[in-house]
Design a protein that fits this description.
The chain is α+β, with helices and mostly antiparallel strands. The protein has four helices and seven strands, in the order E-H-H-E-E-E-H-E-H-E-E. A seven-stranded mixed sheet has the order 1-2-3-4-5-7-6, sandwiched between helices. A hairpin with a 2-residue loop joins strand 2 and strand 3.
Length: 151
């Protein structure tokens, strides 16, 4: 599959992709995502000029950026699009960042899909840093695993 990775402002297409992944993105998350799109860096994966995935980054400080959101159209999952988006996406960010942080559901929760998510980020050289439970704004049943990657 020939996929282009590029910066984008197409938040509507990105939200539509996220909505097709309801296990990962509930209404609260979708609302937060929409807000984050206005202040962060949105990068899309395009196949034949149609967005098939996206990654959104948000600056935490002048040396750290957070990978806030990542979603792939279900029919394009497990084909390397997510890996391509993260690896090429960080190269499109300003060069000032030394660290990329990301948060996901901790291994304390037995959810198998999130176990695959953590495995994916480890494959991309994200290092598990700590678990915070409960994590503010995530609810008492959603322990947070923080990962970091040196850029």
């Amino acid at each position: 599959m020939d996929t282009q990775i590029k910066k984008t402002t197409d938040t509507v297409a990105a939200l539509n992709i996220a909505k097709k992944n309801p296990h990962y993105f509930n209404p609260y998350g979708l609302k937060a995502m929409e807000k984050d799109f206005k202040t962060g860096f949105l990068i899309g994966a395009y196949h034949e000029n149609i967005m098939v995935g996206f990654v959104a980054f948000k600056e935490l400080n002048d040396q750290t950026v957070e990978l806030k959101w990542l979603a792939i159209e279900p029919k394009y999952q497990n084909q390397g699009t997510g890996t391509l988006l993260v690896n090429e996406g960080v190269t499109l960010l300003p060069k000032k960042y030394a660290i990329c942080e990301m948060k996901t559901l901790s291994e304390i929760d037995p959810d198998l899909q999130y176990a695959r998510t953590r495995k994916f980020y480890k494959k991309l050289e994200f290092i598990p840093l700590e678990t915070i439970s409960p994590y503010p704004d995530w609810g008492k049943d959603n322990p947070c695993q923080i990962f970091v990657k040196v850029l």
